[in-house]
Design a protein that fits this description.
Helix content is 43%, strand content 16%. With 311 residues, it is of the alpha/beta class. It has a seven-stranded mixed β-sheet, sandwiched between helices.
Amino acid sequence: MFDSPLSSSAYEVLGVDPTATAEEIKRAFRLRLRQTHPDAGGDAAAFIQVQRAWELIGTPEGRASYDRGHGFATASATGTTAQNWSGWQAPAPRTDTRPKARAYGHPGGWRRERYLTLIREWAGHGVEVPDPYDPALVRSAPREVRHLLADALAEEATASTISDLGMGFTVWHDVATSTDPADKLDHVILSPSGLYGVMSEDFAEVVRFRRGEIIGAGVSGRAPVATLLARMRVIARAAKVKFGGAIIVLPDDDLDQAVTSLGKVRGTPVVVIRRSALSMVLRQGVPGARDIGGNELFDVRTRLQQMIRFV
């Protein structure tokens, strides 16, 4: 909940300064519990956030760990370098000899590059900044800049999950659908359970649904489902293939349940899923999607490989 660049910090949720004493944090926690308790007319989601914040910084050990990972402690205080304690660095590579999915393109690459350009313009007036992923810097950046980093991380997390599914899966990342790189399709996934267009997002809040679309304050008037389907249609026409379904992957905290089926939207089955459910959905298939196998699987892969271009 507090790991997204778009999220409020645990200190902000409790309404205290990062330099607050343990007693001040405890008092703030009790006050915020009373203010947000659903029985007293408070918001249930905020009530849960308050409890989570206390779990993270309510003990000296937990607070020290949280501060190190979120930029509230200096590098000298933690005994590590800025490169190691920055909160949004890629995880260390794992040693894994299992066959991976076939992957093409650079997941999250365009959004990371765009983030780096904008954070330098904003923080350094176009020149290099010492650590563009410094959590304190990220938290202070405009929301649209933080959202670019959040979505890049979401795409990278999706790519990591797909990679572990094995050689029966093929994925293309950052697929161009127009001359504008912002109009990209995050992932095209070919699997025995179907051909899917996939969007990886992070709205930093629990989303809701209305008439086959995702809504909520963090969605900011956008139409993610309609956008995903429009970009899939571009690829389908160009490659002469038929998508079996559309998948929108969100952080687990953004959804009340693991899988939400929106039924068929404009003739295409659509599901919105938690990131932790992605492997299951890709293996079992989206409800209503048509399986692909044998020669057809080879033919679809060849068509896509010949046609797809990357941003």
